[in-house]
Amino acid sequence: MRNDHTTPAGPIADTAVHARGLVKRFGDLTAVDGIDLEIARGEIYGVLGPNGAGKTTTLKMLATLLPMDEGEAQLFGVDVRREPHRIRQLIGVTGQYASVDENLTAMENLRLFGRLQGLSGTRSRKVAGELLERFSLQDAADRPLEKFSGGMRRRLDLAASLITRPPLIFLDEPTTGLDPRTRGEMWDTIRDLVESGCTVLLTTQYLDEADQLADRIAVIDRGVMVAEGTADHLKSLVGVSTLQLDLTDAGTLPAAADVVRRRIGAEPVLSAERSRINVPLDDADDAAEVLISLREAGVGLAGMSLSKPSLDEVFLTLTGHDAADQNETTTTTNEEVA
Amino acid sequence: MATTTIAPESTTAAAPQFDTLPARPSVQDTVSQTMTLAWRALIKMRRNVEQFFDVTIQPLLFTAMFAFLFGGAVTGQHGSDGVKAYLPMIITGILGQTVLTACIATGTQLREDMDKGVFDRFKVLPIARIAPLAGPMVADLVRYLIASTLTFATGIALGYRPGGGVPGVVASILLAMVAGWSLAWVFTWVGTIGKNATSVQGISMIIMFPLTFMSNAFVPTSTMPHWLKVFADINPVSHIISAIRDLANNGAVTGQVGWALLGCAVVIAIFAPLSVRSFNKHM
Q1: How far apart are CA B7 and CA B1, in angstroms?
Q2: A127: number of Cβ within 10 Å
Q3: I need a surface site. Which of A29, A271, B123, B151 has the fewest CB within 10 A?
Q4: What is the pTM assigned to this prediction?
């Protein structure tokens, strides 16, 4: 635990987030259907799931942005429903879309948020300057935001959440839409945050992001938590890589699955309508073993690929359906980012 | 260090006592947050000068246009005599109308602003819920000041000589600003319930036109049919304009000033809570 220098004052003080049975309905749709969360202070907790799984809704309820229909939540022992103003003093929220003021410069933005949270004029100017430097934005401090790149905006947005150093930071898909290099920079920044004692609750669609950052990961599917554990635990469910095989004849699926089980002792995931079989591999070398055995068994292949496990594999393994079926309108976006 | 913020040391030192944090913003905090958000709105105004078109062009255009168009008809005198006799009435009427039109922009711009990302942040900050609404409204006092000053300036250029002198004019400008700020709550409320900026503007126009034209702004209410006169006489805009006339033309602080201020207070008492409630729900 990173917060081992903290003096615990009881069980409540050690718990950053405690939520029981969160439910949120939008008309007929139950977006969040009974989620429990227990996050320790100083932890980075990842909520992993595709678009429409209920990640952002859960986070919004905890951040006082949406009223919860059922359930209860406390942040550091403070009740979310009853004491929204206290909760807002404990959290920083950085959303999917940068929530900074386009009409102001970066410096003015940070000064504005500092002043609004009770810092004096001099102090907010000083804190703003420090944050701009920490987020490598000092050169752009007085530039209008229109000229900012997506990555710069996100960094400014995160900086704006840190002005009063809240003990809990919510990051809603912090790197969605960023290019790989900027993503890496964002990850470093998030790691630094935890070094300084913050607790972080982040949502993401990327397994590798959760893997890179989170101490523990919850996988959310249709408003329900389907798995929770460390990244290693989740990966052990899907292997370090996945061999995807397209068979020429769907009728040979059972035979192929049998070969895989006998040869490498892994449990394959079958998809009959696509004559496809996904094999989790602990070692990429096992791929060759599987292919040789399949040829010996006379199973014909139409195609194959070897890939790192993605959210889709985790989903297929944990829930038996694709991540992309969750929400038809977002299917294309999911495929783009997968 | 401000008591409302989490001290940097507190996250790493002994477990902080979060239940001692203020449970709601104090009045002092609310005022300071409103002023900070007014500062933001002023920066925005300075960078979007086109926001000033309605409060600069309209007083110039409308004052001259209305004076020449209706001067003769309303006063029964022909030519420039009519215009001149009409000026004490029309200048103060235009003042009311211009400020009311400027209020519409307050609501429309709030609506536009609310759709932007920065409002998402205002929602999660520990600030008074009224501050994001009241802040821009305070900044809009600048617009009402410009509109009022220009209306009087145009009038004086056309030959208007306010009987109340400088103190009367200054007092009437102040009253116009107070009235603008109060009536703006109506349009702020419309801004929080409207679907988008265009619909907010549409609804606001429907409210604004009867309020200004069915008042004593342009014609004496004695010329109106009875039912209209009844409405015009209770219309708060009429009281505001009467009060402005008493101040600017006679330098007199009359009962109308009291009625105008009471009307403003009633409008705020109704529409400020409505706006905050609908704004919170929207969020």
Answers
A1: 8
A2: 23
A3: A29
A4: 0.79
